[in-house]
């Protein structure tokens, strides 16, 4: 047996009704600003955009990954494991893959758009986003290993902890 001080992350979007409704309420508050930032980022990157066709293509794909990330997050929140594990896993994959490409494109656009050169503040923001991309990529890739390890070694103990 193991003793845990914090509840598992799955409580937030798990099958337990109070936490699930609270998480969906947070999603309801979270999505409109994401749409606003999507429009804001598109305008900001287009205004500073070099005349490169590649840069414009990256803006295009960046917008697609931002939409996919939001829809993936909504899907992983609504389609719980109890509903369908395969659909939940597909939604999680869509969310985590689009998150990583979203952060990759964001750092590329900030760097090559020239925003970093305009102010020290933008350079600091770029460095924070780069750190978020690197840590997010490492953590998301680790889920491909950590979930099977959890199933192999910790699943029974985890169920005992959560059920009792």
SSE arrangement:
Elements: H1 10-13, H2 17-47, H3 53-78, H4 85-112, H5 115-118, H6 120-163
Low-confidence stretches: 1-11
Number of domains: 1
What would the principal axes of the Cα set say about the shape? globular
Q: Whole-number average pLDDT?
A: 79
N/C terminus separation? 12 Å
The total count of helices amounts to: 6
What share of the residues lie within helices?
Answer: over 70%
* Relative strand content: under 5%
- Give helix and strand order, one letter per element, not per position: HHHHHH
Structural class: mainly alpha
| Total number of beta strands | 0
- What is the rounded Rg? 19 Å
Largest sheet: none
Provide a quick synopsis of the model.
By secondary structure, the chain is mostly helical.
How would you describe this protein?
With 164 residues, the protein is mostly helical. It has one domain. Helices cover 84% and strands 0% of the residues. 14% of the residues are buried. Pfam families: Frag1. This is CWH43-like N-terminal domain-containing protein. InterPro entries: CWH43_N (IPR019402), PGAP2 (IPR039545). It comes from Dictyocaulus viviparus (Bovine lungworm). Keywords: Membrane, Transmembrane, Transmembrane helix.
């Amino acid at each position: 047996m193991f003793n845990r001080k914090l509840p598992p992350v799955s409580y937030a979007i798990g099958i337990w009704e109070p936490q699930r409704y609270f998480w969906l309420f947070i999603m309801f508050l979270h999505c409109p600003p994401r749409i606003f930032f999507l429009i804001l980022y598109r305008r900001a990157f287009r205004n500073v955009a070099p005349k490169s066709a590649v840069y414009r293509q990256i803006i295009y794909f960046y917008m697609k990954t931002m939409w996919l990330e939001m829809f993936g997050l909504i899907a992983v929140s609504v389609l719980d494991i109890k509903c369908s594990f395969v659909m939940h896993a597909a939604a999680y994959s869509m969310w985590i893959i689009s998150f990583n490409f979203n952060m990759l494109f964001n750092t590329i656009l900030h760097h090559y758009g020239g925003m970093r050169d305009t102010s020290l503040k933008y350079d600091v923001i770029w460095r924070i986003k780069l750190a978020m991309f690197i840590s997010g990529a490492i953590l998301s890739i680790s889920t491909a290993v950590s979930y099977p390890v959890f199933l192999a070694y910790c699943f029974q103990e985890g169920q005992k902890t959560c059920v009792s």
